[in-house]
Amino acid sequence: KQAGLLAQSVLLNQVRSGDTVTLLRVCNGVQTVADFRFESKNGARMGKSDILRYTAALTQPCTGKGSAITAALAQAKTATARTAGVRDVVVLFTDGALLDDPKRASLGGTVQGLLNSPDTRLVFFAGLSPEKGTNGDSIRDTFVKALGKSANDPRVLMAGAYDLSNVYPTFAQAVQKARR
Fold it and tell me: Does residue 59 contact residue 53 with C-beta atoms inside 8 Å?
């Protein structure tokens, strides 16, 4: 439910005419839900029916085991490279569970690759789980450790599953700053 609300908020409040929107659904693989340049007349926002359709496609429950978090971030890096010279904002709604991610060892390097782009303004990891993982740390803590030095980059914003409503204003402010 939180992922749906966040997706709707981002699509309604942050997407502007001229923005390139790439929506990736992450399960045991990465599925492109949408990849388009949003155009509207007179600065209108994305329509409600489109927002609901994209949100429904993004938040379908995953079947099967596996998590392609690292692959999704690599695909996001490829998508941002297509729009060189444009300020990029990447949002990933994930619980942060890396145990089933076959490429988890390269997560920190993949995120650092995104951050090395001069066009990357913000990488937002939303929905990180406070639940205990396999080694006693929370899933969120394990995810942050896997990010390595990328976790300390000021362009990386993280929010737990329970603090999204508190962090969203910070995210919105960072997006507004990236537009300047």
Answer: no
pLDDT in tens, 120-160: 999 999 888 888 877 788 888 989 999 999 999 999 999 88
- Determine the Cα–Cα distance for residues 71 and 159; give it in Å rounded to an integer: 21
- pTM above threshold 0.85: yes
